[in-house]
Amino acid sequence: MRIQRRRLLQGAGLLAGLLPLRATSALAKSGEEFQFEDWRQLRNEFEQDPAWSNFAGFLLASRPRMVEEDIERHRVALNRNAPEYLSEVYRLEREGRARAAEYLGVEPSQISMTGNTTMGLATLYNQIRIRPGQEVLSTEHEHYSCRMSLRYRSARERIRVYTIRLYDEPRQASTDEILGRIREHVTAKTRVLALSWVHSGSSLKLPAAEVGKLVAELNRERDADDRILYCLDGVHAFGVENTSFDELGCDFLVAGTHKWMFGPSGTGIMCSRDPGLKNVSPTIPPFNTGGEEGFGAAMTPGGFHTFEHRAAVRKAFEFHLRIGKQRVQDRIHALNDRLKNQLEALDGVELVTPLGSDFSAGFTFFRVPERSPEEVQKILRDHQILVSPADRDVGPVVRMAPGLLNSEEEIDATVEVLRKIV
Ligand SMILES: Cc1ncc(COP(=O)(O)O)c(C=O)c1O
What we know:
Layout: H1 2-12, H2 15-18, H3 39-43, E1 53-54, H4 65-104, E2 111-114, H5 117-127, E3 135-139, H6 144-157, E4 160-164, H7 175-185, E5 190-196, H8 208-219, E6 229-233, H9 245-248, E7 252-256, E8 268-272, H10 295-298, H11 307-310, H12 313-323, H13 325-344, E9 350-351, E10 364-367, H14 373-382, E11 385-386, E12 388-390, E13 397-400, H15 408-421
Parallel strand pairs: 1-11, 3-4, 3-5, 5-6, 6-7
Antiparallel strand pairs: 2-8, 7-8, 9-10, 10-13, 12-13
Bound molecules: pyridoxal-5'-phosphate (PLP).
Pyridoxal-5'-phosphate (PLP) binds at residues 116-118, 143, 145, 196, 200, 233, 235-236, 256, 268.
């Protein structure tokens, strides 16, 4: 089907515009930092439909040409001779773990590859070591994937999961309040602290490193088996924030790589402070240990799967590293600042996300009091602008996520549409 379509397009002379023929060398030679002044040059590395202003890339991202080309290379090779090519995709999977480690400033033995955030959270929370009588502390801000993973574990082993709120209104949240609420609810029985770095139902970015410091302080007097294990769903900060794993001070970080990281769909990672298996055990048998015994290899689920995607994840990390983590963060924060400042100044719009970047990463959420988020979504969609409504946590809200593929002009044009309807 795909080949037929390609032949057809070739025949029509349309191929050049639709297929990734040009290499990423438009920005730099292989391996070098990307050189570009204008973010539109980076945007040109993506096939994302330019007719649309897509502010919902945080759901499932478009992929840069260098990732797409890599996927295609593996797809073709696997299709031609899978038995011969398997060792190559396994080698590239290990290389992908190494690139993720470089991105987070850790060792490859601390990184495992997963299929998405949900798989990472499920394998972590279903096997993290919790002794009878110990408890989990989590929050109402967590995504369904976290809440359900904890619920399954709790139902199976009668483990108590305490669920609290860390703040009431995102714009009133403070580090003192968040740390205070955690401190107030941690008990001697608390074994797991299950949090998210950026809350996709409220947009708030947690002061994750400050939480890490608090957990370290609380752990000081505890025995190894009673230590609080600080676990973070990092999916909406991963590919946005320029923070190393050690700075976070967490025990486990879980993230999909098919959102802000621009990786192939169905990919993600887990990172563990301990390169061994002291605090978690595997669920899905690994196929590609290469003699390794620790966390990274053992927690990378085996079985045959979408090898062409997993082998290409390394290119997504390379893409981000070649732009530069600080540059990525600055750009995403600047775009969100621009949107937030304009929405704040717009009568009839209620900005939900805190101004500035202390408590905000790549999300800008708002409400139009007289209209439902779905209605706002439809109006914007009629102008070829994509946003995502949500009704959980502090919802109902309209969710926008200005990212590297968006421009100042798109933000300004969106605000102009909103101006006309409020
Ligand atoms: C905070 C959070 N965690 C997890 C997920 C699920 O991500 P995935 O599709 O990678 O499993 C989402 C979905 O967007 C999310 O917002």
